[in-house]
Amino acid sequence: MEKKEKSFYGGRRRDPGSSFGRRCAMLVREQRAKFYILRRCIIMLVCWREHAEP
């Protein structure tokens, strides 16, 4: 039987197909999406407040 080496990163088994750069790009994309949603919510609240006050 052949013994396979397993590499672990942060307690998870690392996928050999995903490189460090790909993981970083995915994290950046996720953070950009979160900031976009947050920005849209803040703009909506500010506009609602402006229109709600007489």
Automatic annotation (TrEMBL):
Residues 1-20 are annotated as: Disordered. It is a single-pass membrane protein. Residues 1-16 have a biased composition (Basic and acidic residues). The keyword Manganese does not apply. The keyword Membrane applies. Keywords: Cell membrane, Developmental protein, Membrane, Transmembrane, Transmembrane helix. It is found in: Cell membrane. One of its GO terms (biological process) is shoot system development. GO terms for cellular component: plasma membrane. Its main location: membrane. It comes from the Eukaryota. Signal peptide: none annotated. Belongs to the DVL/RTFL small polypeptides family. This is Uncharacterized protein. It comes from Dioscorea zingiberensis.
